[in-house]
Amino acid sequence: MLTDRQNKILKLIVERYIKDPTPVGSKAISKILNCSSATVRNEMGELERLNLLEKTHTSSGRVPSETGYRYYVDNLMEMKKMNAEDMLKLQIVFKNQQLALSDVITKSLQVISDITNYTTVVLGSTSHENLLKQIEVVPIDDVSMIVIIVTDKGHVEHKNIKLEDVSLEEIKKTVGLINNLISGTPIDEVSHKLEFEIKPIIGKYVKQHEQLYNAFYHVFTDFTNKEVNVMGRSKMLEQPEFSTNIDKIKNVFNKLDSPELLNNITEDDDNNIKVYIGNENNIDSDVTVIKTKFKKNGEEGTIAIIGPKRMEYDRVVSMLEYMKENIER
Amino acid sequence: MLTDRQNKILKLIVERYIKDPTPVGSKAISKILNCSSATVRNEMGELERLNLLEKTHTSSGRVPSETGYRYYVDNLMEMKKMNAEDMLKLQIVFKNQQLALSDVITKSLQVISDITNYTTVVLGSTSHENLLKQIEVVPIDDVSMIVIIVTDKGHVEHKNIKLEDVSLEEIKKTVGLINNLISGTPIDEVSHKLEFEIKPIIGKYVKQHEQLYNAFYHVFTDFTNKEVNVMGRSKMLEQPEFSTNIDKIKNVFNKLDSPELLNNITEDDDNNIKVYIGNENNIDSDVTVIKTKFKKNGEEGTIAIIGPKRMEYDRVVSMLEYMKENIER
DNA sequence: TTTTAGCACTTTTTGTTGACAAGTGCTAAG
DNA sequence: CTTAGCACTTGTCAACAAAAAGTGCTAAAA
Known about the structure:
2 copies of one chain form a homodimer. The first copy, chain A, has 3 domains: 4-76, Winged helix-like DNA-binding domain superfamily/Winged helix DNA-binding domain (Arc Repressor Mutant, subunit A); 84-118 and 232-328, 2-Layer Sandwich (Beta-Lactamase), CATH 3.30.450.40; 132-224, Enolase-like, domain 1, CATH 3.30.390. The first copy, chain A, has a 5-stranded antiparallel β-sheet. Chain A has 329 residues and is an alpha+beta fold. Chain A has helices spanning 4-19, 26-33, 37-49, 66-76, 84-94, 101-116, 168-181, 190-205, 209-221, 240-243, 246-257, 260-265, 313-328, and strands spanning 53-55, 62-64, 119-126, 132-139, 144-151, 156-162, 227-231, 274-277, 287-296, 299-308.
């Protein structure tokens, strides 16, 4: 357990370093604490032994270590109320009744990226709670048609299919069957029901039943709708720890460009706001990811804010809290 | 007009510089041309006076100028057949019958970005040639419903609308009217027809006609579907002219992040493959954009490849040609 | 008239050196 | 337990020197 003074010193160093990314020396801290720099040096040495601080070279000031940031976030950080100016900017988005949920999220993350200079990510997907509401078929020409699927939560997806030698009549019949028999089924169980409830029936009534069944089967197994949206990539370049290190940037950008990102961030299933510092995340050892999950109207997803390890934790967390509240309400 | 030898020297310098981005000296060229370096120096001096070559400093080798690249592309570049290996990789995408057009384009541009190390962009939009085929309405709950619009070219769009105090009956009536009366209308004329052909009728028959009309009116005026897709952003960092200059990267990435890009690239209406070198494009004076438009099945769009000015012009052009051919077939 | 050998000159790159600033750890005294 | 003082370390910056690459120009050769 750290002493009061050690906590105070660690907190000061972290917060100072977040404001200005240069190592913090004992003198600066001693002024604030009204004690000599030698005293502070002793404490700093102790904090370094505890792996909470680091030096960039033998005679440099101290910099928070990864565990230092962790300790700060877990024990020292004070939750601020959200900055009034920040809140105003976000409210403009939330108050806009015209926007669909996913647009609200995207737009507000765009705002957050703009005002914080961090990169933001939204990973959305249609949850398993969606039930099949209705399907529609619109013929386009002799062979191709559009199948439209609507869920009870208002999610819509469509697919182009090609069917030769199947009459419109028979397609309509099949669509009618599906709407009557398996409407209300969870979306990821539809293909199963299709096989055991629809296939046997159309097998009798419909000529090209095999082809028809296959087409619909694929429409539902392809129902995924994973959306990845990254905003403010170039903000990463504003951060001094990256703007001098092209290799770091390359790595981060590669991660942001590849859909693996999705798996990586979503690894755990916690619904709260969580902070992943450095090696705790799968993006890069020099970034921090702050993320939370949300769920609303059958859409669920993850929103994440990515910045340097010295990101403004309190500010970002309070913003995410505010967003989460507003989304789920 | 340049002499044969001047053409030869310029071509050699451009191609050498494309392979290896270091200024080219007279000695290297003299070896290839079997003449003395002094002779080459004289010619180089002349080419510099003509603004086709530049020096990075008084005693450096020569580098192609912007007009030098332009001259190379217009007069010296030989069209190669596409590399067999490159072609194979693209064919895998094109041969996949499962994929929808937009997926084919996205995937093949992903491949091109991978193998060339350039950034690729696709700007898609639904063309004005689309005619309204059919609209459908699926009610979700008491107040909200989904309106689905399908065009004759198979383009689908949907929108969530909220209507209070309007009965399902009346909505269905209106939808029926629209499908009967203005199906077949070019998509961007629908809202006009809605006003002059539908509004007067529902004004008589439907109670909440104002609200209902407004809802549908918005659905059609919002019908835009502009899609921007950037692939391989981080490839930009592989190019030596950028990897040492953060400000350049910032500028390029900002352009890639903002939808203005769309207007900028699409500025002219040429359907051929066009090359925009340096200041000829609106991205950055240090990049070249090679782009072409395509049109297929009522979708139209632009595909563009963005790289340094010393990009492999012949390779990229042949790839784009091949793509264009395959898309439009 | 064109080509080329030769040479003086420029600029970039690389390495060295020295001075200075910032900050540490340790010791010994308060 | 705190602190003043001091020796020591490291990074940064500027100045300088030497080497490398390449040019332009002149005068001779073809």
